[in-house]
Design goal:
Blueprint lengths: L1 H15 L11 E5 L6 H11 L6 E5 L6 H14 L5 E3 L4 H4 L11 E6 L4 H8 L3 H11 L3 E5 L1 H4 L4 E7 L17 E5 L7 E5 L7 H10 L4 E5 L3 E5 L4 E6 L3 E5 L4 E4 L5 E4 L2 E5 L4 E3 L4 E3 L1
Parallel strand pairs: 1-5, 2-3, 2-4, 4-5, 8-9
Antiparallel strand pairs: 1-10, 6-7, 9-12, 10-11, 11-16, 12-15, 13-14, 16-17
């Protein structure tokens, strides 16, 4: 009798529990630091795309100054890698705000953002029905990828590449300084870190250190060219490609910011990761 009661209770829970109790784990993020994309790296992206229950891939190339050409080139690259169902869409904000246009993401399990200027991409899509569908695709197990500007948009706090102080040409980001780096809302697939790209190649240490010191609750993840991080559903990531990923962690640092915006930071942790290394975004530690 006790066994029967136990089974009935379990069945009652199953049929009465809300749907979100059985929600699928989040999908994968494939974040490329820009530059050349090794074929082996992009084949890995295609392999991941097959994990989604929906096989269709959509490319958003609006970061590019020539979005149609960029979109067509990326579609051809994916087809050469064996992706059959892939298309690109160029949307302006007016189009993205129309609920009916979100239908272009029906049966889509894989999204890719091309490079260019990340501000163009977020200006068109942030806080639109398209943006909400993108978040839902990720939450339901989809694959979200992007390179360069398409990497910067992944985090909730997005670097746009400008400083507040006036600088002469060729002297950008020469200071570690608070309240200087211009940021804007990104797509928010990552909420616990700030993503920077072309990181080692373009010597972008100062701007990411400045932001991490101002926002010690966020990790700074700088991804170099021809390199990517794959963020898994369990919030660990693996480095693949050819170069390095640098992680700054100011969680336990002592930060002091003067009225002049000069800052100091004691005990800021820096990790330099190579291809094959893994990192846990929850514990903020490398995985041995």
């Amino acid at each position: 009798m006790r066994k029967i009661l136990f089974i009935l209770v379990c069945l009652s829970f199953i049929f009465s529990a809300p749907l979100h109790a059985f929600k699928k784990a989040e999908g994968y993020l494939f974040i490329i630091g820009g530059g050349n994309r090794p074929v082996t790296m992009m084949k890995k992206f295609v392999e991941l795309s097959k994990k989604s229950s929906n096989g269709k891939t959509v490319v958003f190339p609006m970061a590019s100054s020539e979005p149609a050409a960029s979109g067509q080139s990326m579609v051809e690259e994916f087809k050469n890698l064996g992706v059959q169902d892939v298309e690109y869409h160029v949307l302006n904000r007016e189009q993205a705000l129309k609920e009916e246009n979100a239908k272009i993401l029906d049966n889509v399990g894989c999204i890719y953002f091309t490079g260019g200027d990340q501000s163009r991409l977020t200006a068109a899509l942030v806080n639109t029905p398209i943006h909400q569908r993108l978040l839902k695709i990720y939450e339901e197990g989809g694959i979200i990828g992007g390179t360069s500007a398409g990497a910067a948009v992944m985090s909730e706090m997005m670097i746009i590449g400008d400083e507040k102080r006036k600088v002469e040409e060729g002297h950008a980001f020469e200071k570690i300084q608070a309240d200087n780096i211009v940021v804007t809302p990104g797509f928010g697939f990552i909420k616990t870190a700030i993503i920077d790209q072309h990181f080692v190649t373009r010597k972008r240490y100062n701007r990411l250190i400045s932001l991490v010191a101002e926002h010690p609750e966020l990790l700074g993840i700088g991804i170099d060219e021809s390199t990517a991080v794959i963020v898994n559903p369990d919030k660990t990531f693996e480095v693949i490609g050819e170069q390095n990923v640098v992680v700054y962690d100011a969680t336990s640092a002592k930060i002091d910011i003067l009225p002049s915006h000069t800052l100091s930071g004691f005990h800021i942790i820096m990790h330099v990761l190579k291809p094959g290394d893994k990192f846990d975004l929850k514990t903020k530690n490398p995985i041995k």
